Amino acid sequence: MRKAVYPGSFDPVTSGHLDVIERAARLFDRVIVAVIRNPEKSPLFSFQERMDMLKASVPHCDNVAVDSFDGLLVEYVRGQKACAVVRGLRAVSDFDYEFQMALTNRRMAPEIETVFLMTDYRYSYLSSSFVRQIAGLGGDVSGLVPDPVARVLAAKKQRKG
Ligand code: PNS
User: Fold this and answer.
1) Domains along the chain with CATH numbers
2) Ligand 1 atom with minimal separation from the 10 CA
3) d(CA 10, CA 82)
4) What is the distance in A from the centroid of ligand 1 to the CA of 73?
5) pLDDT of residue 157
6) pLDDT tens for residues 103-156?
7) Which residues contact 113 (CB under 8 A, 6 or more apart)?
8) Which residues contact 107 (CB under 8 A, 6 or more apart)?
9) What is the side-by-side order of every strand in the sheet holding 3-8?
10) Which of the 8 DSSP states describes residue 83?
11) 69-99 pLDDT, tens digit each
């Protein structure tokens, strides 16, 4: 049983994240999408909202579970008995941060491998922060996020009036 953890803040989950989840699910027997409860940057969406949007986005992936963690990622991965951390890579700009994080995690837990999946070119420009910005300014985010997330954002917009 090869298990992988795909961690992130998912504030909110985007179509790019979903693409990585679907491809990781084809590579591993089980994928746990792990939402960090308290990210360093304070999130726009509450922990519960981020979890709910993710859960609503992956019902078609049989071997994917959504869970949460706090503290050190490698400790969580060890606790789950997973062999790998999955991260998406969009462009060169992601590389420095991801490389640093992977090496830091390897230093702490050499038995855990970080596996990078290149995001599909259709989503290579996409980020949660732009989605937050567009949605916050009343723009249309359909296609940029999974449909259930687009519905949550549209409902939020309506409530704001
Ligand atoms: O989606 P993000 O915000 O890029 O995800 C970053 C995340 C949550 C994967 C990263 O911040 C993380 O692993 N935090 C847990 C704390 C930790 O283990 N830090 C040491 C390695 S950098």
Assistant:
1) 3-126 (3.40.50.620)
2) 1
3) 20
4) 7
5) 73
6) 999 999 999 999 999 999 999 999 999 999 999 898 999 999 999 999 988 887
7) 83, 84, 85
8) none
9) 64-69, 30-36, 3-8, 84-89, 113-118
10) S
11) 999 999 999 999 999 999 999 988 899 999 9
Look at ligand 1, atom 20, and give the residue with the nearest C-alpha. 72
Instruction: Indicate whether residue 68 lines ligand 1 (CB < 6 A).
Output: no
Residue nearest to atom 6 of ligand 1 (CA): 8
* C-alpha of residue 65 to centroid of ligand 1, in Å: 19
Asked if 88 contacts 121 with a C-beta cutoff of 8 angstroms, the reply is no
pTM of the model: 0.96
Pairwise CA distance, residues 21 & 154, whole Å: 24
DSSP secondary-structure letter at 122?
G
Structure tokens, 82: 């997973």
Rounded distance between C-alpha atoms, residue 83 and residue 94, angstroms:
23
